[in-house]
Specification:
Helix 4 links the parallel strand 2 and strand 3 (90-93). The radius of gyration is 20 Å and the shape is globular. The strands form two sheets. It has a seven-stranded mixed beta sheet with strand order 3-2-1-4-5-11-10, sandwiched between helices. A four-stranded antiparallel beta sheet has the order 6-7-8-9. Helix 5 packs across helix 8. It folds into two domains: 12-148 and 249-289, 3-Layer(aba) Sandwich (Rossmann fold), CATH 3.40.50; 154-246, no CATH class. By secondary structure, the protein is α/β, with parallel strands linked by helices. Helices cover 29% and strands 28% of the residues. The chain contains eight helices and eleven strands. The structure holds S-adenosylmethionine. The site of S-adenosylmethionine has 21 residues, from helix 1 and helix 3. S-adenosylmethionine (SAM) binds at residues 8, 11, 23, 26, 52-54, 57-58, 73-75, 78, 95-97, 111-112, 114, 117-118. It comes from Acaryochloris marina (strain MBIC 11017). One of its GO terms (molecular function) is methyltransferase activity. Keywords: Methyltransferase, Plasmid, Transferase. Pfam families: Methyltransf_25 (PF13649). This is Methyltransferase domain-containing protein.
Length: 295
């Protein structure tokens, strides 16, 4: 991303991998949290805007709860999977910093630290402004964010080894610029397609030693020594690194930006939907309301 006015499309190259290996993580614990903090305030069949909806697994869950869902994302490839995963949803290719929608939504959500990709407080405030405008009076906005201590200098902190692909993710933090960077390195057999079909498995990796290696890595070593992955994969596999930047924000900054655009009743929660103390500096959920009786 160079220009703040262009559409954020950085997820295009790893959309298939996100869809396959990451999206389910975003769902962990989310439905109970929404059940507690959001659903009780929504009308039956209410309209929810899923900001930065990605591959649509969260949208799908909301639809299954009976809501009408519009997902918005800057990545065309992520939306391709979203349309497959949640065919009853409506999906819009647009940027969170510049979209305009009429005030028809009962609620908006944004999950899996998507808004940490908004790289300045001014732009984050612009996102809040756009969401505010899209909400009906009394509508609520619930989103999660990584806070100051979210990004750590860990070279490799997760990974996965499969028959025909593997990946690692590592994070670093530049304290001077307050910018987190995570690099996903994708490994694939040299002869696989650039945009993998994943049906074209490498036959060598179906041998028993290979299956055992995958099993041990994914069940044991991935937790204990994720950095071991590059040593385990076939030497002929190619690697493709993809780098993403993320900006952590403090609770106070987020609260102020929400209030400036008109949100009220801003509350901060942990992942179990318990009130977070102001000292919390890793992750938090923010819940804010557009006041009733205002345009
Ligand atoms: C970590 S994924 C989360 C996807 C989904 N919310 C989930 O929980 O699975 C982040 C998503 O945010 C989208 N995104 C980041 N910045 C964006 C922006 N400025 N406008 C639109 N989408 C954006 C990316 O394209 C990506 O799909």
């Amino acid at each position: 991303m160079t220009s703040s006015t262009s559409r954020y499309s950085d997820y295009d190259p790893w959309a298939w991998l996100y869809n396959r290996s990451e999206a389910h993580l975003a769902l962990q614990g989310l439905m109970p949290l929404l059940d507690k903090l959001l659903f009780p305030h929504l009308p039956e069949n209410g309209q929810i805007l899923d900001v930065c909806c990605g591959t649509g697994q969260v949208s799908k869950q909301l639809i299954q709860q009976g809501y009408q869902v519009t997902g918005l994302d800057g990545s065309e490839k992520m939306l391709h999977y979203a349309r497959e995963n949640a065919p009853q949803g409506k999906f819009l290719l647009d940027d969170a910093r510049s979209f305009t929608l009429p005030s028809t939504f009962d609620a908006a959500i944004s999950t899996d630290s998507s808004l940490n990709h908004i790289m300045s407080l001014d732009e984050l405030q612009q996102v809040f402004q756009n969401v505010y405008a899209a909400l009906k009076q009394g509508g609520r906005f619930l989103f999660d964010l990584g806070l100051e201590n979210r990004y750590r200098n860990i070279e490799v902190n997760d990974g996965e080894l499969q028959a025909d692909y593997a990946w690692t993710v590592g994070e670093t933090y530049d304290a001077d610029n307050k910018t987190g960077t995570f690099t996903i390195t994708l490994f694939q057999p040299a002869d696989s397609d650039a945009s993998p079909s994943l049906t074209n498995s490498d036959k060598r990796s179906h041998s028993i030693p290979q299956r055992l290696k995958r099993f041990v890595y994914n069940r044991v070593l991935r937790v204990l020594r994720p950095g071991l992955l590059p040593q385990l994969i076939d030497k002929y596999w190619q690697s493709l690194p993809m780098t993403f930047t993320a900006k952590p924000y403090s609770q106070a900054e987020v609260r102020a930006a929400l209030e400036v655009v008109g949100f009220t009743q801003v509350e901060v929660y942990d992942f179990r939907a318990r009130r977070a103390t102001p000292q919390r500096k890793d992750y938090a959920y923010f819940l804010a309301q557009k006041p009733s009786g205002q345009a």
